[in-house]
Design goal:
Structural class of chain B: mainly alpha
Structural class of chain C: alpha/beta
Number of domains of chain C: 4
Strand content of chain C: 15-25%
Distance between the termini of chain B: 42 Å
Helix content of chain B: over 70%
Strand order of the largest sheet of chain B: 1-2
CATH superfamily of the largest domain in chain C: P-loop containing nucleotide triphosphate hydrolases
Keywords (chain A): Membrane, Transmembrane, Transmembrane helix
CATH class of the largest domain in chain C: Alpha Beta
Oligomer: heterotrimer
Shape of chain C: globular
Membrane topology (chain A): Multi-pass membrane protein
Largest sheet of chain C: 6 strands, mixed
Number of helices of chain C: 23
CATH architecture of the largest domain in chain C: 3-Layer(aba) Sandwich
Chains: A mainly alpha (275), B mainly alpha (185), C alpha/beta (570)
Helix content of chain C: 25-40%
Bound molecules: adenosine-5'-triphosphate, magnesium ion
Radius of gyration of chain B: 17 Å
Protein name (chain A): Energy-coupling factor transport system permease protein
Number of strands of chain C: 20
Largest interface: A-B, 71 and 58 residues
Number of strands of chain B: 2
Strand content of chain B: under 5%
Main location (chain A): membrane
Shape of chain B: globular
Number of domains of chain B: 1
Organism (chain A): Peribacillus huizhouensis
Order of helices and strands of chain B: HEEHHHHHH
Strand order of the largest sheet of chain C: 6-7-8-3-9-10
Chain lengths: 275, 185, 570
């Protein structure tokens, strides 16, 4: 049941060398742009730029392929759903209707709809390489330090660090509990009735949760014994100082942000209308 | 000592809680039989944590847990729903003082209170906020996202009603009454 | 005049959920630079005593305190847990909570970070301390990838960075293999020599701790201090036997032979122990007692054939292991931390699937069988009790498997109560599991499998954290089951347990089978001992020093005799 998940990939690349703070800020800027704009020109530029960044990060496509496949699958389903529920959304947005095929009634295919759905898809393509890169090039230990640096209280930053630290542990516990329950005679096969399945799931979830509650107790004791939370501030072993390249990168991203907003909003509409 | 809003225990609860939320949300979803609709047990857990550790912990567990889950398994956080997980955790947490689960009794009255609150809160979150954000951020068709919200929200309500109530009952029982344990022969 | 650093005066403590105090009227003074060992039965209050010293009682574990406790002259009531944490460094008993950082370096630096130490200073300090525990090459390793012994060193480094006065270790040896355990004790000794800190160790494995000198041993029983003397004095007294704590084996053997142990024989360590006066008695006794009865062979019940397995692709954890086990055998699986012993047990139970190789049960291929199918014949007690417990109440936990199998209620009750009695848990049958000590929890998991009466039982570290009496009771019950034909496989780091109960031992090293022989032969082969991090028994050395020409036979006879004596306890 080795389920793959994204995690830090240690490499030497310009992207890896940026501090976590820089990457965090840039990622947030990037997501904001991608969320806001529907301007096709900007989306295409951003998409090309993110491909470029992906290439210089030296992360191999193979290493993240499982996520990409999943996302492609999801996008396909989502596109179908959008079409099923609102086949004329594009017409509504762009205000014109160029019919491509007549299928009868509301399911007639229009160029506007295709263009709109292409934009939806493009939006994901823009943000996904950036998000994946952020996850695989940021050392999780440095991540908490970065959160703290951009103003999140160190207590909450540390909670995030703990979450990252304990995800593999909890996953292992989950599996072990499930196995030991089966060894006592619980049947986990998928063919069972729903009520039975729920009952079986509870027999794993309940112990997992209770043991996690015990863990909270033990860990907070251990942290307390080693003086967590005694000062207003705390330093971070893994924090890294800013370099010139960090400053340049952040300025670059702020510029991209401003340009995108200007181009998107100067005609008072998030959508770019070629029609 | 407790001069800070967040005690160490709360911080650890947020961290571990988020990790558990991630794992449950990924591995402990029970298919209903209808494709693409699942009972997501992580919300039952979120409700428990919110009631035990209060609104801030509840909110942050939802927020951090959901963002991390999306990020490490699906490549990118789906922000609108992440935010709603946070809001749901926070709002359910508001009843934690009233229920006072640490006292060790979770009677019918509290059970009803808990469920009324969770249903209202989740209705606001999944039926209203999540789809509206989807329309706003991603400009998706309204009827699609509202239906998605309805289905997911409805399932989450059932999950919390069953699993959340069960967990709270168990938790209350595990807070053994003070001075009650003696060795028997 | 030595300066007292820990002073308990008429101190009592009662957990809020308990009806009676867990610690009663404790009077104890520990002086600067001393090394003190605390021993006592499981559940006697040792960890609780430790929690009082580091401040978890009463800051984290609530309850009622009476009497006084001073740490380096200051009353703890006037301190908070942070100032206490500057004075006392603790290594906790529960392995789940010890490591907080993602990597070794961060975990060591944790206390420094909290002190808002500048980064460069932190780098220096971490480098210095990690060198002290010989972990300087692992600073960037993730904690998940360390072996048990390496983890132990990291936890030590983590408390060393803070210049604390007192180091407190709660069962530092549990789960360590014998050689690593020896190393850990030497490390603690060396650090104490270099830094002159006060050291308090809580541990069941008395003989292993005494490998390095200890100033005093405190015996705790049922929440009271019942003795406080030097190791030599204590070993010469009958106190250990009275509270059923295992004495060092060479002492026990000398006592059986009728020698009177006195403190001027320096019984605390085998190398200092003066055997000259009791040589004759030992030799006489050796002739008098009988060895164990040899077992007759029966049919093969379980067979592993060329098993390969890896958790991640590309890294093999188990390579080409084959062995077969006969019906009604008792077998030990031993080896270094991280050798793959627990992994083997998981493969046998179907928790993991081998990448190649077959597993047979009574000649039938069960490699493709589900966990549930196998579980009706093979029961497993896992290493970490937290991973097996799924109910809140002790009774429910033990009854769970029977309920799932549809056993009638009246019978369930009978069987559960009987098993709880065997495991020494009957007085607690109506308690929540959360109020148990670590060793008691482990016993709950053993009970929950014993009650099912499977044909083959696999126990992963059954005696870790158990006191001698419970250990004996559980093991004797297993022997009884074994006589009725149940096959028992034990994974253990306890060499004496292996010698005592399992005639045969399978040694695993680096995922391969290194040896498969009688337990006594395994421990007589120094190359196996070295490669698999085992340790020879002190009885062997005693025999040599007493001039007995067949030391192996001496060990055998001791064990047979000792078992007989202890059977009378029941
Ligand atoms: N958190 C708790 N709440 C209530 N009772 C507790 C708690 N922790 C321990 N006890 C009780 O206090 C007694 C002593 O426990 P403690 O953990 O100090 O034992 P111990 O000597 O360290 O045992 P072991 O060798 O098994 O670790 C036990 O009987 C246990 O039931
Ligand atoms: N779930 C897991 N995923 C990945 N690696 C694992 C897992 N469990 C164990 N390992 C690795 O497999 C190796 C063998 O582990 P195993 O637990 O079988 O050792 P062991 O012989 O039982 O050691 P110990 O005496 O310390 O209990 C170790 O290197 C360990 O880090
Ligand atoms: Mg203990
Ligand atoms: Mg093991």
């Amino acid at each position: 049941m080795a389920v793959e998940m994204l995690s830090y990939i240690d490499r030497q690349s310009p992207i890896h060398r940026l501090t976590g703070v820089t990457k965090l800020i840039c990622f947030m800027i990037w997501s904001s742009i991608a969320m806001l704009t529907y301007d096709t020109r900007i989306l295409v530029c951003l998409f090309l730029f993110s491909i470029f960044v992906f290439i210089i990060s030296k992360v191999k496509l193979k290493e993240v392929a499982f996520v990409l496949l999943f996302i492609l699958f999801f996008l396909m389903i989502n596109n179908v759903a959008i079409y099923v529920f609102s086949p004329q959304e594009g017409v509504k947005i762009y205000g014109t209707s160029h019919v491509l095929f007549e299928i009868g009634g509301r399911y007639t295919i229009t160029i506007e709809q295709l263009f709109y759905q292409m934009n939806v898809t493009l939006k994901y393509f823009t943000v996904i390489p950036a998000a994946i890169l952020f996850i695989v090039t940021t050392n999780p230990s440095e991540f908490a330090a970065s959160l703290n640096r951009i103003g999140v209280s160190y207590r909450i930053s540390y909670a995030v660090a703990l979450a990252l630290r304990y995800i593999p542990d909890i996953q292992r516990d989950f599996r072990n509990i499930s196995l030991s329950q089966q060894a006592r005679g619980i049947d986990m096969s998928r063919k069972e009735k729903l009520t039975k399945r729920i009952k079986n799931a509870a027999s794993i979830i309940v112990p997992l949760i209770l043991s996690s509650l015990d863990k909270i107790e033990v860990i907070s004791n251990a942290m307390e014994l080693r003086g967590f939370g005694k000062n207003k501030k705390r330093s971070w072993y893994r924090a890294r100082p800013f370099q010139k390249i960090d400053v340049i990168t952040i300025i670059l991203f702020v510029l991209i942000l401003l340009v995108s907003f200007y181009v998107t909003l100067h005609d008072g509409n998030r959508f770019y209308n070629p029609f | 000592m407790k001069n800070n809003l967040l005690s160490i225990k709360t911080i650890v609860a947020i961290g571990i809680g988020a990790a558990v939320f991630v794992i449950l949300g990924r591995f402990a979803v029970i298919p209903t039989g209808v494709p693409n609709t699942n009972f997501d047990t992580s919300y039952g857990f979120l409700a428990l944590m919110a009631v035990v550790f209060g609104p801030i912990a509840g909110g942050l567990i939802g927020l951090i847990g959901h963002a991390l889950k999306d990020a490490i398994f699906y490549g990118t956080p789906w922000w609108s729903w992440v935010l709603v997980s946070g809001i749901v955790g926070f709002l359910i947490g508001l009843v934690s003082k009233k229920i006072n689960i640490e006292a060790g009794n979770f009677n019918v009255k509290k059970m009803i209170l808990f469920n009324v609150v969770q249903i209202i809160v989740q209705a606001i979150g999944w039926f209203l906020i999540a789809p509206s954000l989807d329309v706003f951020i991603y400009a998706e068709p309204a009827n699609k996202v509202y239906l998605q919200g309805m289905v997911a929200g409805g399932l989450n309500m059932v999950t919390v009603a069953v699993l959340g109530t069960l967990l709270l009952g168990i938790y209350a029982k595990s807070r053994s009454q003070s001075g009650s344990l003696i060795k028997e022969d | 005049m030595k300066k007292p650093v820990i002073q308990f005066e008429n101190y009592s403590f009662q957990y809020r959920s308990q009806a009676k105090p867990t610690l009663n009227d404790i009077n104890l003074t520990i002086y600067e630079g001393e090394k003190v060992l605390i021993v006592g039965p499981s559940g006697s209050g040792k960890s609780t005593l430790g929690h009082c010293i580091n401040g978890l009682v009463p800051f984290s574990y609530k309850g009622e305190v009476s009497g006084r406790l001073k740490i380096s002259g200051e009353d703890v009531r006037e301190l908070d847990i942070f100032s206490l944490s500057k004075k006392v460094g603790t290594v906790l008993q529960d392995p789940d909570g010890q490591f907080i950082g993602l990597t070794v370096a961060e975990d060591i630096a944790f206390a420094l970070e909290n002190d808002y130490t500048p980064q460069t200073q932190m780098f220096n300090k971490v480098a210095e301390v990690s060198k002290m525990v010989e972990m300087e090459n692992f600073l960037d390793s993730s904690l998940h990838h360390l072996s048990g012994g390496q983890k132990q060193r990291v936890s030590l480094a983590g408390v060393m960075v803070d210049d604390v006065e007192i180091l407190l270790f709660d069962e530092p040896l549990a789960n360590l293999d014998p050689a690593t355990g020896k190393y850990a004790i030497e490390l603690i000794e060396r650090i104490q020599q270099e830094t002159k800190k006060t050291v308090v160790i809580i541990e069941h494995r008395l003989e292993d701790v005494l490998h390095c000198p200890v100033d005093r041993i405190i015996v705790v029983d049922d929440g009271r201090i019942i003795s406080d003397m030097t190791p030599d004095e204590l070993l010469a007294s009958p106190i250990l036997e009275e509270c059923s704590i295992r004495e060092p084996l060479y002492v026990k053997a000398a006592k059986y032979a009728g020698c009177a142990i006195t403190s001027d024989m320096y019984p605390a360590r085998i190398d200092s122990f003066q055997v000259d006066d009791c040589k004759d008695k030992l030799a006489d006794w050796f002739i008098k007692v009988n060895g164990p009865q040899p077992k007759v062979k029966t049919e093969t019940i379980l067979e592993l054939n060329n098993i390969d397995f890896g958790y991640t692709s590309g890294k093999r954890t188990i390579c080409g292991v084959s062995f077969s086990i006969e019906k009604g055998e008792m077998v030990s699986i031993v080896g270094k931390n991280g050798a793959g012993k627990s992994t083997l047990s998981k493969l046998i139970c179907g928790f993991e699937k081998p990448s190649s190789g077959r597993i047979y049960y009574r000649g039938l291929d069960i490699t493709e069988d589900t966990i549930k199918d196998r579980a009706s014949r093979i029961g497993i007690v896992m290493q970490n009790p937290n991973q097996m417990i799924s109910k809140q109440m002790i009774y429910d936990e033990v009854a769970l498997g029977l309920i799932l199998r549809g056993v009638p209620e009246a019978e369930i009750k009978d069987r559960v109560f009987k098993t709880l009695k065997i495991c020494g848990l009957y007085p607690f049958r109506n308690w929540p599991i959360s109020a148990l000590s670590f060793g008691q929890k482990k016993r709950v998991t053993i009970a929950s499998i014993l009650v099912l009466e499977p044909e083959v039982i696999i126990l992963d570290e059954p005696t870790a954290g158990q006191d001698f009496r419970h250990y004996t009771e559980i093991m004797e019950f297993l022997v009884e089951l074994n006589r009725q034909g149940v096959t028992i496989i034990m994974i253990t780091h306890d060499m004496h347990l292996m010698l005592e109960y399992t005639p045969r031992a399978i040694v695993i090293a680096g995922g391969t089978k290194l040896a498969d022989d009688t337990a006594v032969n395994v421990l007589a082969d120094s190359s196996i001992i070295n490669e698999a991090n085992l340790k020879e028994t002190s009885l062997f050395e005693l025999a040599l020093r007493a001039g007995i020409s067949e030391p192996k036979e001496f060990v055998d006879r001791f064990i047979a005799y000792d078992r007989e004596v202890r059977q009378k306890w029941q």
